[in-house]
Amino acid sequence: MIFDSLEYIETYRNIHPRIYEGLKLLHCDFSKMADGRYQVDEDNLFFMLQTYETKSDNTLAEAHKKYIDIQCVLTGAEVIGVGSLNEMTEVESHPEKDFALYRGALDRLTLTPGKFIILWPQDAHAAGIAAGQPGICHKCVVKVRID
Fold first, then answer.
1. Residue 104, C-beta contacts closer than 8 angstroms, at least 6 positions apart
2. CB–CB of 142/70 below 8 Å?
3. What secondary structure letter does DSSP report for 130?
4. By Cβ atoms counted within 10 A, which residue in 22, 23, 54, 110 is the most buried?
5. What are 63-105's pLDDT values in tens digits?
6. What is the pTM of this model?
7. Does the pLDDT of residue 13 top 90, yes or no?
């Protein structure tokens, strides 16, 4: 897991070509784009815009085997719980959709505009948690295929 500020994207230039391309997408003007899925490089790199109300807690974490998530809040704020997958208990699996749900201990980070988090397959994550009172969150999730 990497938790950082958008101003330091150049730090990750050589980490992986698609991860760097995904990070550069976060500098786009998303204000005129509707929520939904946007293809960049077929299924190798795409992003989703989402708007939702955060909730008081999220006890189910998810993880993906084929994709790295890059998550960035555009407006609002949310807390995201992150834990090591090898310390989680699987609750249900959906391999056809590349996600499984888990329960276990999570550390919490607050995502606000200008910050991003990169989540690898070993990082279970529970998003959508209110940072204080529940509120509206607009977020970009970039999906980077790794296999």
1. 61, 83, 87, 88, 89, 124
2. yes
3. -
4. 22
5. 999 999 999 999 999 999 999 999 999 999 999 999 999 999 9
6. 0.95
7. yes
